[in-house]
Amino acid sequence: MSLFKAAKNTSFNPQEINILNAGTRIQGDLNSEGDLRVDGAVQGNIVVKTKLVLGQSSSVKGNIIAQNCDISGIVNGNIKVSELLVIKASAQINGDISCSKLIIESGAAFNGNSAMKSMEASSEILNGAKAPKPLETKAPVIAEPA
């Protein structure tokens, strides 16, 4: 009789969420094809093809790349999100961020630079290509007649 049974279905299911619970510490890079929730501590880079959620008890020392990301914990590193980045009130971020859409709740601590890119440019970030610099645009100033 074996202690562990062989898994019957070993195929990838994008509907399932990977969870790293509070009290768990990982040293090394994490890569996930599906959604990932981290409530523990990670010392290394995190790459998620879909959505990454960092809970209030999470701590990350490394860079993050994801399609969408919600942050409630502590991040010391750069963050690149191809779509929506939500920084919750309890979050503490020390590093640069790059995303297409950004929400920062009141009370969040963010120390770094931010860049907002178009969807096409930021989707290249997730696919490993180097994103071009954002275009500088200047809106025309039209004076109204007196």
Give an overview of the whole structure.
With 146 residues, the protein is mainly beta. The protein has one domain (18-126). The chain is 5% helix and 42% strand. It contains one helix and 16 strands. The longest helix has 8 residues, at 119-126. The relative contact order is 0.12. The model is unreliable at 129-143 (pLDDT under 50).
* Count, helices: 1
Largest sheet: 10 strands, parallel
| Topology order in helix (H) and strand (E) letters | EEEEEEEEEEEEEEEEH
- Structural class, judged by helices and strands? mainly beta
The proportion of residues forming helix, as a percent range, comes to under 10%
Q: Based on Cα principal axes, name the global outline.
A: globular
**Radius of gyration using CA atoms only:** 19 Å
- Quick check: average pLDDT? 83
Highlighted features:
mainly beta, 146 residues, 10-stranded parallel β-sheet
